[in-house]
Write a structure and sequence with these properties.
- The structure holds two protein chains of two kinds.
- In chain A, helix 2 crosses helix 3.
- Chain A has two domains: about 110 residues, no CATH class; about 30 residues.
- Chain A is about 65% helix and about 0% strand.
- By secondary structure, chain A is mainly α.
- Among the domains of chain B are: about 160 residues, no CATH class; about 100 residues, no CATH class.
- Chain B is built from 20 helices and ten strands.
- In chain B, strands 2, 3, 4, 5, 6 and 7 form a six-stranded antiparallel beta sheet that branches. In chain B, strands 1-10-9-8 form a four-stranded antiparallel beta sheet, with no helix packed on it.
- In chain B, strand 2 and strand 3 form a beta hairpin.
- In chain B, helix 1 packs antiparallel against helix 2, helix 6 crosses helix 8 and helix 10 packs antiparallel against helix 13.
- The longest helix of chain B has about 35 residues.
- Chain B is globular and about 85 Å long.
- The chains are: A mainly alpha, B alpha+beta.
- The interface between A and B is large, with 56 and 70 residues.
Amino acid sequence: MSSLISRSTRTRSILRRVLHCTLLALAVYALVGAGDPASRFNDLGHQLMCICGCNQILLECNHVGCPDSDGMRNELMSAVSRGDSDSLVEQSFVQKYGPTVLAAPTTTGFDRTAWIVPFAALGLGLLTVVFVVRAWKNRPAPAIADGVPPVRGSELERLREKAREETDL
Amino acid sequence: MAQIGSFALLLALALSIYSFGAGILALLFHDDPDWDRVGETARRAGVVVFAAVFLAAVALVVSAFRDDFTIAYIFHHSNRELPAPYKFATLWSGQEGSLLFWSLLLSGYGFVLRLRYKTDQRLFAYASVVLAGVQIFFLLLVNFAANPFGLLEGPLRADGSGLNPLLQYPEMVIHPPMLYLGYVGFTVPFAFALGALIMKYPGEKWIHITRRWTMVTWAFLTCGIFLGAHWAYSVLGWGGYWGWDPVENASLMPWLAGTAFLHSVMMQEKRGMLKVWNMWLVFGTFWLAIWGTFLTRSGMIASVHAFAQSSIGMWFAWFLGITLVVFLIFFIKNSSHLKSEHKLESLISRESSFLFNNLLFVLLCFTVAWGTWFPKISELVQGNKVTVGAPFYNRVAIPVALLLLILTALGPLLAWRKTSFESLKRNFKWPAIGALAVAAFLMITPASWGSPFGLRPWQDIAYFYSLMAIGLAALVTFTVASEFYRGGRVISGHTGQGMFASMVQLTHRNTRRYGGYIVHFGVVVVIVGLAGSAFNQDREQEMANGDKMTIGPYTLICRSYTDDDAPNYASEWAILDVYKGGKQIDTMTPVRRFYKASQQTSTMPDIRSSLNEDLYLVFEGLNPDNGHPIIKAHLNPLVMWIWLGVWIMLVGTVLALVPNAPAPVRVQSARLAESAATPVPAGAGD
């Protein structure tokens, strides 16, 4: 009994350590990514849209003489160089250019539904498929009558053809 | 020409109305032989519609070649110096012309369908009536809402406004026809499906008849979508091929629904299952094709590709509503006819893999539709628009697409009805080990080998997705290869042929199945190409003569900058020598053009493609202060794999359309089975 208890305590302790290590690794991963200004500029620049009407991501807008993208890129570069956080940069862009400057909906307010609905649909779809599969599996098999005559002639050929079709080879 | 065109369109409308009305009456009174003759006239009227619409299309093209600027459409979409292929392409370059082109293709499909009516006269008569109904809608549009032969008001102009510069690219001569052949083509399976539903068609023959139509249509749409992607890559100059623009999404939605149908239709053919689902998928695919057109032509959704805002949006909305109501009425009335013939026996079976496959395709389709409409929904709910761009689709659609890849790998290994877990494990073990080996190899190799080697998934989420995509692509490839190998080995054992010859024979015996596997292989090649985008690099630099720019393994040295003048446009370009490993390997010349008639500027990137990567140079313009060219260079790994994959997909589709070689006759086994059951007279069973 005591060995069982000590084994479960040990397992829990190992699990806790694994969890701590995972969290630490994730934190390091997040901080490492956050520290590099060039990659931050690149990441943020791909989260913003050019507002000239070209419907392109800010860093991909290539219109010759685009009235907006150069200025926006410079603003972004300055903000990243100043060390502004990602959310502060995005907020300042939204304040200046409006919500359409963000390349994807935010995860707050009504915008959150944009993210939730596809995954909710996936969950609902999976549930439906599982339900359909169960319903089909539980459907009663056709009853086999007594004294079924043996299959032969064209009937046999038809069934062989059907079997060939169903087995695909 | 304008009068001829207008008259031809009116005639086509009258004939379509007759074909529709008389066709319905003939079907209602089909017991009466007199009405049979009326039905025949309806069919012939439908055939002649093609001739009339073709005449109208010819009139418009001739007008473009004759620079007839009295026609407003020609004035707005052509000019005297426009090269001949683009004058031809004027037919589909604008709203009115493209609707005429749509009518032409629809009448063309109707022409073929009505000529092949002897396959099943009654079913074809129903399909012909449905097609005539759709044809009436498009002919009403081109006659009364968007007439391509409308005359220009005001004084006669010496020259036209010219074609949009972005459309002056060779692929634009074939991309729209392919895309439209795909969109319009889905009307045919829909017509057969609705016809079969109305007449409670017994059996699955209609599915057999429409399968080829659907595959051909699907191939056209696939081709159209990827030609569009290639056009965007080669012309738009932003270094990408897919921007999740609403117009691009509009083409993707029917493709996804159509792909789901091509898979689920096998359940109906082989097991008599999913009849209701297939009916809705066929309808949904057709409806989405029209809905996509509505999106891009109503002005409701902002897009750089969209046609000008016009009133025809309401026409489409009404048409979509009417088709939905008509379909619903007949579905509710006759859905009892669509009962499944078999039950599902196991969760580990081909049937259930198709169910999940369909779920994911439909979910992807829904996600694309949701993302496309969300800006509008947001505007209605919270009063302000939001942008739903690439970051949204990448985060939502990529995981679902990866799940689909897993199913693509698993599906072929599952048998119909039931597969034992042991058999699945046995068949899946080696492909899975192979895929893990590929993924591990990509992770441990040095990044200096170039993309996609040195893939460290912990460095960036894009690398993680990329590794998953390539690993799963390897899994699909190995399962497909194992299917060919195992089938080939069986035939080789029976016939003594070599393995390759056996695999060819195997493919010929079941072209649909093995053609399908080749399509799957093409898809994974495309996926590998898409996965390369995680490693894209770009640099922008002002380059005076002799200046250097380095990107990846390439060094670019600007040699000169020059300009030229052609009748249709003036151009300026930079001349850059390309060095790799210290050796000059190429000279590239990205161009920027100024189109005189439309007074618009366009860039023509220069792309150096290889299997490893594309070096993509854009001439962005001149620095106004010092006149030095500004060059943007992109290094896009594995892009060529995308175009290569599409070719493989098309080859697989063509192969799947080839009729099967006759199966070997196993007379002996049949006789044995018979003789075991009951004594039979001599000669029976031969």
